[in-house]
Write a structure and sequence with these properties.
globular; 816 residues; binds zinc ion; alpha+beta; twelve-stranded mixed beta sheet; 26 helices
């Protein structure tokens, strides 16, 4: 659906916050009367200084509005806003409306599980969708307690932020919640599979769709164990108990983000319930996500940023604390090495683009543009900087400041200046000498990373600050030095533009363990030496660091694609902790292979087959190698053989079956009937997503026309299916898709009439013609950015154009 509404501006939010104090919300929802819409009656009690303001409301229709007993004409509602004139003192506003169920992962999302026809509903108010569920003053600093009353079909379970229970069949009553910001109010309703536990006085629960209940059961103990370990550690570190009562973790379908930290009722994307076999990397990712959302219960939920320009107070802290606590108290002690593969490049690349921003005080002026800052800078870079800060301040001061911050602003809102003041006070109290001002200015308030490189001729480390964001930062980090066949580690501090490093070395890898924040570029001799040396490296952290440095070099056209292929062929990045299908492999096959000398894909395929033959059957390395082999395959007979008889130690589950089918489809070896039959045999949600991707990847005009209808919104699919279609669209011979490059730019603006928010921007990115590495495509991308686009779409296209420009630079520097 499209919500033609005005994004809330910061000055409007500030004016409304100074006018109003919200006493409470009473929300009555009727979820059982229609599949398209639901009834929503909201009573808001608030105190005002008196005067005009507006209410946020995005309904299908309005039945009745009254303010202090006087009715208001619903026709005055425009662009999601209802102007109201408040009395000085207490006010009561009642809105009776019909709201839309949505299928784009925002608002109250409703989906039907194709496996069994059951319908499920969940709320995602973040970041401006609350007014599609209930009438509200939708901004983070107008917190209030909520009391929910829900009627639902009799076989449903309903869970909310506060504890609740079924008082009669289909009627659910909830306790009054703690003060909540509108963006983290939620509701999860449906015939969910529920599992209960308890820890330290906190009732715990998990839920999933019924069709994946067995898979949730299988991992429930692991999930509960991580949750308990993290609660204990957060309680120890913060000294403030979890304040929201129950802690429910709901795995929900078609969720856009990884998870959402709604107090008391966290929602996770349900591919995190593993229905097929996964590698350790995916388990680590799930564990850090669990810990990240728990950290948010303090950083974000207990104390909330006053405005979105401080979203780092949420995300950077949750990311840092989530990774740290996972590594320190759960079975996943290698979480940091995994994060190095998973998130480091996300942050470093975002920080080098034209769209970069500072970690703190990102300057977001309205709610929609703020959404674009939920990026690698707010997460990955913010986490890295906080890790440095904790190391510099020491844990005692770091946490004393955080605790002071929580106590001062408990159930309220705060800004970065509040937190800096708490840290300053804590440092003074402890007698710790640390120049917090300089640190925050250089690392949190200045955008862009320095570039570090080793010059073997001059025996110096060069440091270059980004030209658009000048800075003078010192870096303390470890370097891995290869001398002969022996690796050693050296501690280095770089505080000028050239720092001597006198070592006998055939390779120097700077900052492989992510000690500092910089783009570390390997020199030519190191790249050559890595071809023989990397296969012998068994240190996960060093291997991850090497790949990060190669990717940093790639991003800056500072490494020859042929050299990257040589290294990958010798030492394919299939690690058990590396979630190969989602990280390094897509980069190798999607970005490097197309610009490398002919035959690169075949060489990587042979390397994957060799790896597959040498690793232990049944191991996760075997699974990673097998996926890499499938991804790079083009032989119908081999793919058919695997479909019938997988290698010993592998069982063909849904995920693997569809990986193979997708490859067959992409190469023209599987037709629509075969794909449809495979789906009909196992009609799961995941299978439908794979099916839609595979249908679009078939190399014929009909498949591309179908894919295009998904992009334009003519064919209406749920959000994950749209992404799968977009990622598959440009596969196949260029003559099939070349005509669509121009059409992409011509038809992109109109997609805002069919979609909004998250899925609008994601679709724009997924369908971008990133394989068309030409000056013409770059010019077209730059031209479309100048149009009046949705800010989310503009940001994705701008970043995709930046990628294109970098690919062009590689083509020019290293002609294949
Ligand atoms: Zn988060």
């Amino acid at each position: 659906m499209s919500t033609q509404s005005l994004p809330l501006r910061r000055d409007e939010a500030a004016a409304r916050a100074s006018l109003l104090k919200i006493e409470d919300y009473d929300v009555r929802l009727d979820l059982g009367s229609s599949e398209e819409t639901f009834g929503s009656v909201t009573t808001i009690r608030f105190t005002s200084r008196g005067g005009p303001t507006f209410l946020d409301l995005k309904p299908v229709s309005v039945e009745r509005i009254s303010l202090n007993g006087a009715s208001i004409d619903p026709a005055t509602l425009a662009k999601g806003r209802l102007p109201i004139s408040t009395d000085e003192g207490p006010n009561e506003l009642v809105v009776e409306a019909t709201m839309p169920f949505r299928n784009d992962g925002e608002g109250l999302h409703r989906s039907v599980d194709p496996a069994d026809g059951r319908a499920y509903v969940y709320g995602m108010c973040f970041m401006d969708a609350a007014p599609t569920i209930f009438a509200c003053f939708d901004q983070p600093d107008l917190k209030a307690p909520y009391t929910f009353h829900v009627s639902a079909p009799h076989d449903w379970t309903v869970i909310g932020n506060a504890p609740g229970s079924q008082t009669s069949p289909g009627t659910w009553e909830f306790e009054r919640s703690q003060p909540l910001s509108t963006y983290f109010v939620t509701l999860v309703a449906g015939p969910w599979h529920m599992i209960h536990d308890e820890h330290d006085g906190i009732p715990l629960s998990l839920s999933s769709r019924q069709s994946i209940a067995a898979d949730l059961d299988k991992d429930a103990e692991e999930l509960f164990t991580i949750t308990k370990q993290c609660f204990d550690e957060f309680h120890r570190l913060f000294g403030i108990r979890y304040p929201f009562g129950n802690y429910h973790q709901a795995f929900v379908p078609e969720f856009n983000a990884g998870a959402m930290e709604n107090p008391g009722c966290v929602t996770f994307r349900d591919p995190l319930v593993f229905t097929s076999r996964v590698t350790r990397g995916m388990r680590i990712q799930r564990a850090t996500t669990v810990a990240h959302e728990m950290a948010h219960q303090w950083f974000g939920d207990l104390v909330t940023p006053q405005w979105w320009d401080d979203l780092w107070l949420n995300e950077s802290f949750a990311e840092y604390m989530g990774n740290r606590v996972t590594a320190e108290v759960t079975e996943y002690a290698d979480a940091w090495a995994d994060m190095s593969y998973a998130r480091r490049q996300w942050g470093l690349t975002a920080d080098q683009r034209g769209s970069t921003h500072s970690v703190a005080g990102n300057g977001a002026e309205d709610a929609v543009s703020a959404l674009q800052n939920f990026d690698g800078i707010s997460y990955s870079k913010g986490s890295a900087i906080l890790r440095q800060l904790a190391a510099s301040l020491g844990d005692d001061v770091f946490f004393a400041g955080a605790i002071d911050h929580f106590n001062r602003h408990r159930f309220g809102n705060a800004t970065m200046h509040d937190l800096f003041a708490s840290w300053d006070a804590a440092a003074a109290e402890a007698g710790v000498e640390f120049d917090l001002d300089t640190f925050t200015t250089q690392w949190l308030l200045t955008a862009g990373p320095d570039t570090l490189s080793w010059d073997p001729a001059k025996m110096v480390v060069n440091r270059t600050a980004p030209s658009r964001h000048p800075a003078d930062r010192s870096h303390t980090f470890r370097a891995a030095i290869l001398n002969g066949t022996r690796w050693t580690t050296e501690d280095i501090t770089v505080s000028g533009d050239q720092t001597p490093l006198q070592v006998a070395a055939n390779a120097v890898v700077l900052d492989p363990y992510d000690d500092t924040w910089a783009s570390a570029i390997p020199d030519w001799e190191t790249v050559q030496a890595l071809k023989a040396a990397l296969p012998e490296v068994t240190d996960d952290g060093l291997r991850a660091g090497v790949w990060n440095n190669l990717r940093s070099a790639w991003f800056n056209a500072a490494v020859d694609p042929a050299d990257v292929i040589d290294i990958a062929e010798a030492s394919l990045p299939v690690e058990d902790l590396e979630d190969t299908p989602r990280r390094t492999m897509p980069w190798l096959f999607g970005s490097v292979v197309p610009l490398a000398p002919a035959g690169a894909r075949e060489r990587l395929h042979e390397a994957a087959l060799r790896k597959l033959a040498e690793v232990a059957p049944g191991s996760e390395l075997q699974l990673s190698s097998y996926r890499a082999a499938i991804r790079s395959a083009s032989s119908e007979s081999l793919l058919r053989e695997w479909l019938a008889t997988p290698p010993a130690g592998i069982e063909t589950d849904l995920d693997l079956r569809w990986r193979i089918l997708a490859k067959l489809a992409e190469n023209g070896f599987a037709d629509r009937a075969e794909l449809q039959a495979a789906y009909d045999a196992e009609p799961a949600n995941e299978a439908r997503i794979h099916l839609n991707g595979a249908l679009v990847s078939i190399p014929d005009a009909e498949a591309k026309a179908y894919g295009w209808s998904v992009f334009t919104g003519e064919t209406d699919l749920p959000n994950y299916d749209i992404l799968a279609a977009g990622r598959a669209f440009w596969a196949g011979p260029a003559e099939l898709t070349s005509g669509y490059v121009e059409r992409y730019f011509a038809e992109l603006p109109a997609t805002a009439e069919k979609r909004s928010g998250w899925s609008l921007a994601e679709a724009a990115e997924a369908f971008f013609p990133s394989g068309s590495v030409t000056e013409e495509t770059l010019a077209a991308a730059r031209a479309v950015i100048e149009l009046d686009l949705d800010p989310g779409v503009r940001r994705r296209v701008a970043d995709a154009a930046d990628n294109l420009q970098r690919q062009l630079a590689i083509k020019v520097t290293y002609p294949a």
